[in-house]
Amino acid sequence: MAMRNIYLKIERLLGYSPVAPQDEMGHYHQDCARNTGHEDGRVPDGEVALRRVDALVYREYLDAGYTMPNMAPLIANDVNEPMADRRIPGTVIYTKPGQRLRIHVLNADDMPHSFHLHGLKYGVAGDGSWPFGVAGRMSGRSDEICPGDTWIYEFEATHETIGCWPFHDHYKMIGDNVNRGLFGGIVVRDPKWHKADYEVPIFLHRLSGPRTAAAFDSGTLNPGGTFSFTFPTIGPVDYMCRLHPMSGQVIVSAGGPASAAVTIRDTPGSPRFDPVAVTIAPGGTVTWTHAGTMPHTVTESSSGSLESMCLNGRTFVGNTPTIVSDSGKRIRWYVFNLDLGVGWHNFHTHGTRWRWGDQNVDTRSLGPAESFCVETVVPDVVLLTEREDRRRLDKKERREKHVKVCGDFLFHCHVEMHMMQGMAGLIRAVQSIEVEDEKELDYILNKDCAKYGCPPVDPNRCMSAGQGLWDSLPDLPNFVVHAALMHNGLVLMWSGTAEVGYPDQSVVWNPATDARATQTYDEDLFCAGQTFLADGRLLVAGGAPNGTIKSTHIFDPATATWTHLPAASNMSAARWYPTLVPLPDGRVLAATGMSGTGPVEVFDPTTQKWSVVTGADRNLSELYSSLHQIPSGEIFYSRAGWQVAPDVTTAYLRLTGATSGVWTTLGAQAFPDRQEGTAVIQIDATHSPPTATVIVIGGGVSGVHNAQSVEAIDLTQLSPPPSWMRLADMNFRRTNVNGVLLPDGTVLAVGGQRAGKWAADPQPVLQPEIYDPQTNHWTLMAPMAHPRQYHSIAVLLPDGRVLSAGGVDPTLGGAPARDQRYIEVFTPPYLLRGPRPHITGTPATVTWGASFNIQSTDAPRVTSVALLRPCAMTHHTDAGQRYIKLPITGHTATQLTVTAPASASIAPPGFYMLFIVDNNGIPSAAAWIQVTP
């Protein structure tokens, strides 16, 4: 029997991630199946890091000195396979009957290991199963290769051993090291086998790193099982399931409840801890209950990496093997199951089948350490008729166009959860077809047969253009409670500590590039008031959960920095949940933000000081009261707010001097309970005098019918006193709803829930709806991916889309819930109707009542022009947001002439977005323009 020496070394692969095995090769980080959390086809960087392990492999060398590694690929035509020094498994050995193998195994790790091979013939010295091996006469053991030592294992390949056989470490905690990649395979080829076009070894396995002692670990929880842990120390504690891509957080905070409950759910495609985060007091206990069907663990995260379901050391399509082959080629598969846990796998190929016993099959199950060999044929991309197939072979008829096309056929474990967790790969079939005209095909085929990226997919293709589209973006580093669109087109967002110890940090997000940058501030600005100054800086006053802050902060878009103004710029009283209103003279009015009757005061940006408005005290105890500057000069109070109002009447404040004023009461709404509703103001300056309408949307925790209703009041003239009018009801009840004014004159209601924010079942509403004042009708839009409830924001962007962010998790139960960092952007239907008009030039500034020109080659089809003050929203409240329709006084082929608002009461000084809207209701992207004296 011929002798053959094989040299294996046990080596570490430090920092190996199954979704980015070779960082310098930029085509990884993919999930082309677009599973939950990867809808854009990308695996987030945070998950890449969470999946990293210090892996172990048997690396093959070609010489006894271990200086020449075998660099041959495992699968020659796998376009995703990393280099030999960054792959799992390290090697597959091929042999044939009649060979005696002497496998030299050198342990270069710092822990003992061994080598155990299935299927071949060997004596007890060839069995590395601890503690049943043998000791060498001089040193060493077959079942315990110490660091730096070598053991030589001998095996015989015979006709009885034809097939494919796994090998793996068999020292002590076998599964731990196998799950780090310490395995491989030997294939004993049958001399009678015809030569396959491709030999493809596929290993189904888990990958997870060595584990330190976890602060808590449930062990394997089966359905119906429970696990409890008591948390002694204040601070956030992250945890995960070691078996599935699930993670959660326990926030230990003074004042939290004594206990909390979490349900483990494993709905196919979206396993999760529900809720994702809970808050408890120090010494409090969390209990997890398994309500799913698969085994799970509850494991403190710092103890190890997230476990991955892998094919050949990689997880998720786009990283796993993509095998490129011509149609009709024969693949010999060597399939190994190296998952030694309690779960089984199977192997299923799309578009092809193989002979198993007396039947043809396309799926076969494998238990732990089981393997099999089968042959399949790479399927055709295009299913030709028999005549077309004969014509393809008849050279005399080859006058048609020659086209090479590709098609992807999955192979995967058909346990759905395993497949959704990444245990899937592709056969990329390549077929040459001959057609007279490609258009004779009923579908479009891929022609880039070696492409690394995920195929383009429109996730909203079946959505009607009339419903708009949602795009999910990577998570923000911050939770969002406050958001403001700055005149440089960037969005400033922050939360403050949010009562759970988040950092005092803001983030500036670029909607055009998705770039993010963070900034710090020196005081807790949670639940502060905010509005823009005339020069475009953002004024922020008050904040902090305990309502003790009197101070004033300013964010400058030009430098992206925060300034804490000196104590002389403090307000007269601390405010939490205050409303800030921009005034016609460039000052800012602050109201509410304290219990009971409190002072109204104004901030002068020139002196940077606040002054109390005498005679203007009023009990606005609902907090974040909805206030609006109206064209006649008064400040209107609509009664939307954040606690039950002390009475049922609305009112307006008239400033009788620079620091004096008086309130006048107006009538009650038809549904006066508007707690946690919202309000917006629309002004039509094409009329004289300009009309002004305030619309109140939803709210009404104490009466669920109120939350679906909408009312409006015409504030064009205050004498005689105007009355409230009921508008069409929304399709859903909504509290904690955001109202966004759109450039076509419609209003977007987004987010919220049918019940109150602390209800046991808040019933979040995923579908936004748009109100058209011209038709008095609400139209439902496409649903968003994530609920947006209490503490959510929505902001109109300069391109006409709407940002949606923040909000608590919908499954509150009896405890506070996780604050969402997901962000989404809504594309309204008006951007899906066709080409949008373009603005090519505007003045940088205009003054009130001035005529000015807008350059646009689309001028002849423009039917309306509007100014929109940028959103500065928190808690569904924005006193500065306003829509102002401008009169068009002239048209040419390339220019519009319009008139600016007549007074600062209509358009308080500051930066505005200028939109033109065409005869199809399609708006342009905004041009920024400053309205100033």
Structural features, described:
With 933 residues, this protein is mostly beta strands. It has five domains: 206 residues, Cupredoxins -  blue copper proteins (Immunoglobulin-like, Sandwich); 79 residues, no CATH class; 139 residues, Sandwich (Immunoglobulin-like), CATH 2.60.40; 355 residues, Methylamine Dehydrogenase, Chain H (7 Propeller), CATH 2.130.10; 87 residues, Immunoglobulins (Immunoglobulin-like), CATH 2.60.40. The chain contains four helices and 64 strands. The strands form 15 sheets. It has a nine-stranded mixed beta sheet with strand order 48-47-46-45-60-58-63-64-56, with no helix packed on it. About 1% of the residues have low confidence.
